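Entry under discussion copied across for reference:
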Amino acid sequence: MHNTKVICFANNKGGSGKSTTCSNVGYALSLHGKRVLLIDGDMQLNLSLSLFDEDQVLAFARSEKNLYEGIKKQADLAEFIVPSPFENLDLIPSSTLMSSIEYELFTKWQREYILKKCLSGIVSSRQYDYLLIDAPPTLGGWVMNILCASNEVVIPVESTPWGLFGLGNMFEFLKEVEQITPDLKLGGVVITRVDTRKSYFRQTLDVLWELDGVKVFDTYIRVDSSIEWSQDNHMPVMAYKKGCRSAREYEKLAEEIMRK
């Protein structure tokens, strides 16, 4: 049996496609027979909304079965897993109270490792092949927790004029985290919201290719209205419209991740 791999999707800039990439890669991996647990680490609840409708997501947020409650209690997060409507794909939902998670962590002993500790039972059980964590668009103690709990980080970057804004801060933050968790690897940068007719894509590629030691995934995700429609229907794009362009691209991205 293979070890469980923990991958987080992080970028300190909002709108980069973190939640969308996390949910769709997770679903693509599940189609390959991989057991996948998605973990919604963001108070915006977008990862949870990619699998469940708003009423159900808000019910999770109001209940005691969400990530915030688990972290606050420093509990085994296996108790907070809910099955999704899709085979091989489970979720630990988020809560709007995640906005105060920094306060909850502030006074805790070895606070950078609380999430890692709470996930240790799930990881050691090897019941999942992949744990995919959606991080909020910030840099702080909670994101440091997520990175310390992960084997690698994938950074989605949108192909827009402001898509690269703040990316330098993200890389500096990763260097700080690597000092306390040296095994963390940068899995790579995936470019999202690509319109190949515009020069932004080539500019984004050129900048990223010039960065030392930064892998850029061969697969990029183009603008596709099917993604928005799938989000409106609370399902991954491959479940909503299997043959669409973005579905094929997420499938290729998942295959790249599996080969690593």
